Model the fold of this input.
Amino acid sequence: MIWLNGELVDESRAEISVLDHGLTVGDGVFETVKTVYGRTFALTRHLERLARSAVGLGLPAPDPEAVRKGCEAVTAADPLPLGRLRITYTGGLGPLGSDRGDAPPTLVIAQSAVKVRPDTTAVATVPWTRNEHSAVAGLKTTSYAENVIALAAAHRAGASEALFANTAGHLCEGTGSNVFVVLDGKLLTPPLTSGCLAGVTRALVVEWCGAEEAELPFDVLERAEEVFLTSSLRDVQAVTRVDGRRLGDVPGPITARAMATFTVRAAEDPDPR
Done:
């Protein structure tokens, strides 16, 4: 079942116009929320970021209670053991160009089943860069073509995620994840000024595990003692290989501690504010 503009409808009836600005020019924002047996995790934080992204894109902020109602309806209709809840909010009907029309935004909420992710994974670096000076830097927009290309390259290299530098040559983020490294025994992650997304899981790991933000040269991946990824569906996932470099015992002690801490704290509070 799909929540479409305030109504719960069967997937076969969930239709939007081919002239929706989210389709024609990628004028939209979205959130991915983990669900466990119909229960969302960190929904309040996701809704707050959805509003920030919408306003940053020039769209009116969605009504958080209306979005929450839609999320509850979709998850109640199919309480999956583990699900990906996708909230998509677009500019609505518009002309075939960058100018927006006067139609209200489109809101779509859908859910699909996902498999439990493995505790470890491999990553690949890519030659393309994130633009930390972009007008949409830090916004979770639906314009994901760059990520599609980078992720395909990572898959060809036998990895599940691609990592980007920014235009300054600093470590930034993955296509759908934030990255943490352990260097000289310290847990570090790129600052938001690097152009990375303000990940919900990233923020929780910083708060719960005492990670520090630091500008990191991209080649830190060649000497980091430990590396891990965070995202809504990965939680904390240890990295075993960066390109051709294999790390030592994985997960390392700091990564293992972060994984355990996140699991315990997330179970204690499914909607940490």
Notes: The two ends are 28 Å apart (CA to CA). The first strand starts at residue 2 and ends at 4. The chain has a mean pLDDT of 97.
